[in-house]
Every structure is written in C-alpha cells, then in structure tokens.
Design a protein that fits this description.
Strands 2-3-1-4 form a 4-stranded antiparallel sheet. The mean pLDDT is 93. Helix content is 34%, strand content 27%. It is globular and about 40 Å long. The protein has 119 residues and is an alpha+beta fold. The relative contact order is 0.32.
Amino acid sequence: MQYVDGFVLPVPKGKIKQYQKIASKAGKIWMEHGALEYRECVLEDPRTPQMLSFPQLASPKKGETVILAYIVYKSRAHRDKVNAKVMKDKRLMEMCPENDMPFDCKRMAYGGFATLVSY
C-alpha cells in the first residue's frame, strides 16, 4: 500500500500567491525525485456541521486560511529515499528564506500515514 505525508497549516490570505509559488516549485522537486503525487489545497468550504472543521484544527488567526497538502509515495521506504534526495536538493533551500516564509512553520501539522484503503 502507498504511503502519504500529510500537512495542515494556516497561511495568511494575503500571502497565498507567495505560498503558491513556493509550493509549485517544491512540488516539481518532489516529483523529480520520485514522489507519485503532490497536492497543495486551499480551504474553500469550511462548513462541517457536527464535525471538527479544519479551521478549528489549524487555529488560523484573523486573515488566515488553511492549506491541506499531501505527497504520495510507493511505501514508507520509498518516502524516506525521496525525502533524503529532496532535503539535499539546493533548490529547496534557495526558495525558502528563513525570515521570509509566507507562513509560520511552527504552526504546521505534519505526519506520515500508512494507507488503509485506496481505489
């Protein structure tokens, strides 16, 4: 079964375009190094009657929205190999200046997930 890295993070609405540029470049790097799929999604419909919503989960501040992102791999071993290559790729560090990120990295939630069901 495939393996998925998942991310949820709040991003200021005024910085979505800046975030999109970084995410687009990052996606190309992950795909070049072997990821099967790379998605970055901005919250469009937060209504979740009787359920925990993504805004409740991510605790965005006023003027922020929520990004849901995921990367798909063949397996956890494949993920580890791809990510090792990505982390050594100089392009990744060049596009992520520490003091000018369009979001607060400390507020990003992340986890690696084993697939239970896939169609």
